[in-house]
Write a structure and sequence with these properties.
This protein is mainly α. The chain contains twelve helices and three strands; from the N terminus they run H-H-H-H-H-E-H-H-H-H-H-H-E-H-E.
């Protein structure tokens, strides 16, 4: 009875973590879309710096209240993480500006195979055929939903490559650092958020001026814009925290695969909030295919051999061989 109760509790926490991430991620996309499209606040990098500044205040408050215990993260690892994370933010923004929407969506889809490659190379993860096929189904479904016009140029391609690899490395590093240094989501966020806030608030205005030819300090602020910025920063705290929780509980690949549910929800909400334009039969078919692929991935990756870490130590005798075989399938957390 106890193992069943423990498994049920873990499953409930997994679902809660996913729902927390989905709700906050979709919420911040909707708010930022209104802020940037409707109110013309196009300073995405600076806004992200504000997100991490508010997140830093939250972590400091939680430390003061005793909810975050002291922990250690080497400076070298912190610098690597901030470098990957900031390159991801700037790379995605530049990729969106220099590429068509269709190629931008293709670049986002490429993060899944890149994340798989990182897990195979660094963590010795083995994927079953069913797990691989389920990932392909998700990719095809999301591509049908989102990829329309596709055009690319040399500088746009370079921006997309930087965005894909830096984002994949940043998400892999979240899981790696939590496991290696036994850091909880709050602890890791407490280490990384201040460094990201400082670097993005310093560099953000220059990056935004380079991308938009507009200065953030000369924007015509009003009460509505300030309210949306505050709302965006508030939701971002939950988005940042939920990302660390989900990647820590699962892996970067699982986060990417199931995370495309957010893309589908954004499309559906956009349909209801901004009209019927863009929602047609092939988009609906893509949504259904992607959801079926996500369900298949959850089932396939949770089965024995679906997704496991392999060890290659040679046993010295027959008894050790049987022992190692029993221990070689060290499974990651499954969806």
């Amino acid at each position: 009875m106890a193992p069943t109760s423990k498994a049920d509790r873990k499953a409930a926490l997994d679902v809660t973590a996913w729902m927390f991430n989905v709700v906050t991620s979709v919420g911040i996309i909707m708010v930022n879309k209104a802020l940037m499209a409707t109110h013309r606040f196009s300073f995405a990098t600076t806004l992200t710096g504000l997100h991490f500044a508010v997140t830093t205040i939250m972590t400091l408050l939680f430390k003061w209240l005793g909810y975050i215990q002291p922990s250690h993260l080497p400076v070298s690892n912190l610098i690597k993480f901030v470098l990957f994370a900031n390159l991801s933010i700037v790379g995605m923004n530049v990729s969106l500006m220099w590429n068509s929407v269709g190629f931008y969506q293709i670049a986002k889809l490429c993060m899944i195979p890149v994340s798989c490659l990182l897990e195979v190379v660094f963590d010795k993860i083995h994927y079953s055929r069913a797990t691989k096929l389920s990932i392909v189904v998700v990719l095809v479904g999301v591509a049908i939903c989102t990829v329309t016009d596709v055009s690319v140029n040399a500088k746009g391609l370079m921006a997309a490559i930087i965005a894909v690899w830096s984002t994949s490395l940043q998400q892999y590093y979240v899981h790696f650092l939590q496991k290696k240094y036994s850091l909880g989501s709050f602890n890791l966020l407490g280490h990384t958020a201040p460094a990201q806030a400082a670097s993005l608030l310093i560099l953000g205005p220059f990056v935004d001026y380079w991308l938009t030819n507009k200065r953030v300090d000369r924007f015509d602020y009003n009460a509505t814009v300030v309210l949306f910025i505050i709302l965006s920063c508030t939701i971002a705290v939950g988005t940042n925290l939920s990302q660390f929780i989900c990647i820590g509980r699962f892996t970067a690949v699982s986060f990417q695969v199931i995370g495309h549910m957010k893309t589908i929800l954004v499309l559906i909400l956009g349909f209801f909030l901004f009209g019927r334009e863009g929602l047609n039969s092939h988009v609906i078919f893509g949504m259904i295919l992607a959801v079926l692929g996500m369900m298949w991935y959850g089932s396939a990756s949770s089965k024995p051999g679906g997704k496991e870490r392999r060890t290659f130590s040679l046993p010295s005798d027959k008894s050790q061989k049987h022992g190692l075989r029993a221990e070689s399938g060290e499974h990651d957390d499954k969806v």
